[in-house]
Amino acid sequence: MRLEELLTASAARAPERVAISDLSRRNLTFAGLAGAAGQVRDALVAAGVRPGDRVGMFVPKTLGAVATVYGILDARAAYVPVDVTGPAARGAFIFQDCQVAALVVHETRKADLMAELPGFEDRGVLQDDLHLLTPPTLPPPAANAELAYILYTSGSTGKPKGVMHTHASALAFVDWCSDALSPSSEDRFTSHAPFHFDLSILDLYVSMKHGARLFLIDSDEGKQPGVLTKLVAEERITVWYSTPTILRMLVEFGRLETFDHSSLRLVLFAGEVFPIKHLRALRALWPHPRYFNLFGPTETNVCHAYALPTSGEEDVTPIGVPASGDVARVVDTADQDVAPGEEGELLVSGGSVMVGYWNLPERNAACFLEQGGLRWYRTGDLVRIREDGNYLYVGRRDRMVKRRGYRVELGEIEAALNRHPEISESAAVAVRGEDGDVQICAFYTWSGERPPSMIKLKQFAARGLPLYMVPDRFIGLDALPMTTSDKIDYQRLQEQAPWTST
Q: DSSP letter at 181?
């Protein structure tokens, strides 16, 4: 089974049923979506795209973007989505790194991207406002022709790294969702995640597998609580899946008590810790749905899940038990299993785990452990197992944090800031406020005459980083504190960081 076959099957069963809608009330039926995807496939093949090739996507979340995803898959290529609101230079780096054989770009970003990719040719409009670009020469196809997509995440070296997933690893998660969530053709899903974010895998494929309807919510609409609460009520949404940040926004500003949201049967959240006080407030306003905490790094899809009890309250929400057919271990620094209840690193093995990082053999060797006849992925997450068998998330072993559902490597922020000609060195730390928000504070030393304003520093950071990685605060120091081993003393900086942004 391949992912695009989910669309083919639903189009055969119910061709006139609406498959996807946007908030402008534009719709595509399953037959219409299959037809649009076929046009994309034919255009890609005509442009020279072969099985195993990578096709980049620098587009907003639209009906045409969904058709593009399925068209790329139908061409037996892998799609590589990049944040269309981010810097063109970052997108160009990613597309060059994975050697795309073609690019689909929205016309509003075409000039910016082509300026960063000399030699790429505009082959004209693919559909709607999406243009097809091709490189001067075709790159070699991937060795694994079953790649479905590559999602680039923040890299500790300052460069994003590509997480490679196959049709099989995606379907391991999708099929688990079928068993655990019991979707049907009568369901109506919301789609909050951009396609470069791994939460989109459930949106794109679980709804398609079951012939359900998917409502696309773009980044601007997703920040408007009134729009979202009205959507749930008017469209009788049954399945909600987002980060806790969006749900918290609804609690605070969505006036949930004024709407009829009784259609909801499932509320799924993932991507970051859901502060318990905000979760309790949501459940008081939405008491009817079943709630699931879905957990897993991009590298594993969802590897753990926890169904919240329908009654009673907990002081902390576990990440649950292994999901997607995966198995898990908790180990110490010597890769030995820890005793029940002790803290250790979470290792995961199974069908939903990635095949590896794109073109990073040393990183792949370091992040996988071959033991006991299984290939274990080192998540870097610290957990412990409770007496009831549920895993409890403790924190991170490295310097990666979750912010607004996105993975943020603090080292990538530092690398971007250090490109400023008058910043001598920088160090980024993350702090969690009393309300649960993760905020980033960047310390720096300045070699110029007078440090710029915080606005100027944020503007500079935004040229090389997506907006969710831009620090909240910048603090200039005469020198960064150092440890006795001549390394930056992040502990001291953590203690100096403010707990709220201004």
A: H
User: Rounded to whole angstroms, how far apart are CA atoms 325 and 223?
Assistant: 34
Residue 245 included in any domain:
no
Site of tokens 């890609």: 44
Number of domains in the chain: 3
Instruction: Let me know if 311 is exposed, middle or buried by CB neighbors in 10 A (0-12, 13-18, 19+).
Output: exposed
Residue whose C-alpha is closest to residue 326's, from 172, 108, 139, 168 = 172
CA-nearest of 347, 384, 383, 352 to 367 is 347
Full-model pTM = 0.86
434 CB neighbour count, 10 Å cutoff: 9
Residue 91 amino acid letter: G
Please say whether the beta carbons of 295 and 304 come within 8 A.
Answer: yes
Residue ranges making up the domain that contains 465:
400-496
pLDDT (tens digit per residue) in 261-313? 999 999 999 988 888 888 999 999 999 999 999 999 999 999 999 999 988 77
Dist CA 181 CA 177 (whole Å): 5
Q: Residues 50, 152: one domain?
A: yes
- pLDDT tens digits for 153-163? 876 667 889 99
Burial class (CB in 10 A: 0-12, 13-18, 19+), 336: exposed
Q: What angle do CA 37, 217, 353 make, to 5 degrees?
A: 65
β-bridge partners, 239? 189, 266
For the record, the structure tokens of 263 come out as: 């259609």
Hey, is 426 helix, strand or coil? strand
- Alpha carbon distance 274, 258 (integer Å): 24
Query: Which of 347, 381, 396 represents a domain boundary (last residue)?
Result: 396
Look up residue 357 and give its two tokens: 């990082």
Residue in 205, 305, 211, 184 with CA at minimum distance from that of residue 1? 205
**CA 345 vs CA 330, 388, 390, 420: distances in Å:** 5, 19, 15, 36
